[in-house]
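On to our target:
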Amino acid sequence: DASSEALMKKALEIESCHLAYWIDRSRDEGWQVTLFGKGGPDGNQELAGFLCHHMIKQLAEFKVEFVFVPDWLRGGGYGKRLVRWVIDRAAHMPKSACSWISLSAVDERVSFYEQFGFVDLDSSESKSEEQTWMELENRSLVPEDE
């Protein structure tokens, strides 16, 4: 629709988010980019953030590749809304389809994800100099088919 197109256009103008890169990468990899908007002072939607994510079916894993909130909105609860969206989306899948959520957090954001229950995978292969691989068990609300 027109408001989604306008939001996408505005988001592409924000150089720091590298949205065009994530859209291209998502097309190549079969991932999804989900934009989140907020009402602007002019009544139009403004970018509140976006997620790049996908399911790894053979592992029943909801993998978050990238989370972005514009600098000027950080501290306003938008990152929390994005993470809650991921957790809620996973909770509406049976555990057989989504047993856990994973993401790679820059080290200074680890405590942010820990408040949602994410834990450090704590394996040598998951560590890089500036990133920490984290996971959260899915608290599914959907019963398994019997």
Notes: The mean pLDDT is 88. The longest strand covers residues 45-56. Strands lie at 32-39, 45-56, 61-68, 100-106, 119-120, 131-137. The longest helix spans residues 78-91.
